[in-house]
Each structure stands twice: as structure tokens, then as C-alpha cells.
Design brief:
156 residues; alpha/beta; four-stranded mixed sheet; 12 strands; globular
């Protein structure tokens, strides 16, 4: 389903839902970041998605990373809770969702890179090359916080 992100936009539609989402900053042994090219908005992103009934947030992020990238991960920490009422996501079905994502750090433990219906490209990216990608500001915040390795998690 296609989506349009509105960020600090006074003309954005009003949110009519909120859903728990999860994401992960996955770095390999070379310090490279696991990135996807999303099919729904065309932007580069860390992997993630919606939590399902019956899952913990950590279980959800492990599932989402594997579904979108083919990489199995072990959660290693909490980067933060990212919820900004000024970031809403409008979907083709009329849902307008306020951003709410729990972002984890994770290590790869297996699997093979592959795409999915949600990712048209999957790759390991050097941190210095991230600036060359089209990354939404809300995802940039998660990446920056994760790479800076703060002692305390981020939250709004």
C-alpha cells in the first residue's frame, strides 16, 4: 500500500490512528548499516514495521528485519521511542497514522540479503555513505541516535 509522509507540514492531514511500529539499526562486524529501499514511499530506511497481536516489541523487530531483508538478528539494546505528532503517514486506504516506533539496536546472526514486497533493495552501507541516500528525517534521527551509542534511550 502506498504512503505519503508529512513532516512538520501545516497542510498535513489530521491523524486518525496510531499503531505500534518497531525498527532496528543493524550493524555488521564492519560497522556497516543494514538499509532497505522501501517500496511504499521510495525512501531508504532501516528495516521495521508494525507490531502484531501476540508479539513482544523485540519479537516484532526480529520478524520484521527478517521479512524485509532476509537477515536474522539478535536485539542488543533500545535506541529509543520515536513518536512525533508532527509526523503523520497517510495511506491510500484513508488511514492517517501518527508516527510511533520503538527502535532497537541489533546484531546480524545469520541469513542472506534478499528483497521482499516491502523492500526493492537491501544492502550494507558504510555510515559515511548514508548522507548520499534519500532518508526521511524521522529515520535519520533513529540512525544518528543509534550510531552515537547514547547510554540512555531517546524518547519524546
Amino acid at each position: 500500500m502506498s504512503r505519503t509522509d508529512f513532516y512538520n507540514d501545516p497542510n498535513a492531514p489530521i491523524a486518525n490512528s496510531i499503531k505500534v511500529a518497531v525498527s532496528a539499526l543493524v550493524c555488521n562486524e564492519h560497522g556497516q548499516v543494514l538499509m532497505i529501499h522501501r517500496t511504499d514511499n521510495g525512501k531508504a530506511s532501516i528495516p521495521g514495521g508494525g507490531m502484531e497481536v501476540g508479539e513482544t516489541p523485540a519479537q516484532a523487530v526480529v520478524r520484521e528485519v527478517e521479512e524485509e531483508t532476509g537477515i536474522d538478528v539478535a536485539v542488543t539494546g533500545l535506541i529509543g521511542i520515536f513518536s512525533n505528532p508532527e509526523h503523520v503517514i497517510a495511506y491510500a486506504n484513508g488511514e492517517v497514522r501518527q508516527e510511533f516506533s520503538i527502535c532497537f539496536s541489533a546484531d546480524p546472526v545469520g541469513g542472506e540479503l534478499r528483497t521482499s514486497t516491502e523492500s526493492k533493495a537491501v544492502c550494507w552501507v558504510e555510515p559515511g555513505e548514508l548522507a548520499n541516500l534519500d532518508i526521511h528525517p524521522s529515520i535519520w534521527l533513529r540512525i544518528e541516535r543509534g550510531l552515537e551509542r547514547h547510554d540512555d534511550p531517546y524518547y519524546t
